[in-house]
Design brief:
The protein is of the alpha+beta class and 414 residues long. The protein contains eleven helices and 20 strands.
Length: 414
């Protein structure tokens, strides 16, 4: 067992002649008064885990009913320049913004978001401050090769935004302007934060339309992960009079994702593509245990047979219909896939306001691992997370949403 994780959960795998069923799966925790671990006792089944209710719900903090409203995705580590900016008052922040972009008419700020952003020129997500005002959106980041100097990353006039595309499970929003190259990807890594961002955008663009009942639209109020993973769901767009569409491409992205994941499955018992059932899709922070700190945010997929880590592009995919631009990076990168039957044990502990789940796998035989890499290259030319984290027999995942971590644990214990 890892020394930095208190012993919580040991899964006893009982051999059975029929399809794999985990029995006598118990979550046991040390006394929280001694080591700060959560108390999750009793048997684990499909019901909610006892002792979890009442815990903080995740990594997104917010300050509402103020002007401006503030939202912070704390899974994102801010560089020095953004941390300094975050400590400023709203007035000081406005003054800083006006000095950085004197040519931009800012107007009154309505919302501030601390998260990750990307665009066509810089498609790799980076920490940023997104400022929404009555005039437009301004995204600030650290300058290249500098952690203490700010620069304007992207600017949108509100009326230039034609489409806000909500990604699978609401993990990011892609803002599309009048031309093909005007794209800003806003990585919320949270379905709730995505809805907060879309509501704030609609309020800034058309407060009258929003007050007429738009807030109750499924894309703005329902569970985005449940909508995304349900093949039978039908979600209409939100359409404003000025032409803005808040839309989703859930089925298209889900089909692409499952096709790639299925192509990387191997060995006996591989299900057909039609029998791959997605159960959970969310963002997690992956701890690089060789360096001892959170290092990157991945998307985590749970199916009835596998667990998957990957990174999803938010800028180029899905390619807009009729677009002549060629994507410069794959839709899914750093793919790592393991069978649920390979899981040896699962441990969980509290870390600040979210759960860290450590999934340990049975060691792979070198020969089978070599076949796996060959299959992966043949079906999807993406670098594996194993290259990113040398401790590939264990995944240490920080979940930004407590309820989703509990959902994972419950599914693994069934």
């Amino acid at each position: 067992m890892s020394r930095d994780l208190p012993l919580i959960h040991r899964m006893q795998l009982q051999p059975v002649p029929e399809p794999r069923v985990l029995t006598e799966n118990k979550i046991r925790l040390a006394d929280p008064s001694r080591d700060g671990a959560l108390r999750l006792s009793q048997s684990c089944g499909v019901s909610a885990i006892p002792g979890v209710s009442g815990r903080p719900e995740g990594s997104v903090s917010s300050l509402k009913n103020t002007c401006p409203e503030v939202f912070h995705q704390r899974l994102v580590e801010l560089p020095l320049s953004l941390s300094r900016l975050q400590s400023l008052s709203a007035q000081k922040l406005q003054e800083e913004l006006e000095s950085l972009a004197p040519q931009v008419e800012v107007g009154k700020l309505s919302s501030i978001f601390w998260l990750k952003i990307a665009n066509r020129k810089q498609p790799i997500p980076k920490p940023g401050c997104l400022l929404l005002s009555e005039k437009g959106i301004i995204a600030l980041t650290s300058e290249r090769n500098s952690v203490d100097t700010l620069a304007v990353f992207h600017h949108f006039n509100l009326l230039e935004i034609k489409k806000a595309q909500i990604s699978l499970a609401g993990q990011h929003v892609r803002l599309i302007g009048c031309t093909e190259d005007t794209v800003l990807a806003v990585f919320t890594h949270s379905k709730e934060l995505t809805q907060e961002f879309c509501r704030a955008l609609l309020k800034a663009l058309s407060p009258e339309k929003f007050s007429e009942g738009t807030e109750g639209h499924p894309l703005l109020s329902d569970d985005l992960m449940a909508l995304s993973l349900d093949w039978t769901s039908s979600v209409p767009d939100v359409v404003l009079d000025d032409g803005l569409h808040v839309t989703s491409r859930f089925k298209r992205v889900l089909a692409d994702l499952l096709y790639i994941v299925h192509g990387n499955m191997d060995g006996p018992g591989k299900p057909s593509l039609a029998d791959v059932h997605p159960l959970l899709y969310t963002s997690v922070s992956v701890m690089d245990s060789t360096r001892g700190h959170q290092d990157a945010i991945f998307q985590f997929l749970l199916t009835d047979t596998h667990v998957v880590l990957l990174q999803e592009d938010g800028v180029f995919h899905p390619v807009p219909r009729g677009s002549s631009l060629v994507p410069t990076q794959p839709q899914f990168q750093r793919l790592e896939l393991r069978k649920r039957s390979e899981i040896r044990c699962v441990l969980a502990r509290q870390n600040n306001d979210w759960l860290v789940v450590d999934i340990s796998f049975k060691p792979r035989k070198p020969q089978s691992q070599g076949r796996k890499m060959e299959s992966r290259r043949a079906s999807a030319d993406v670098p594996s997370v194993s290259n990113y984290n040398s401790q590939c027999d264990s995944w240490k995942l920080s979940f930004g949403c407590t309820s989703e971590a509990v959902t994972l644990i419950n599914h693994l214990c069934v």
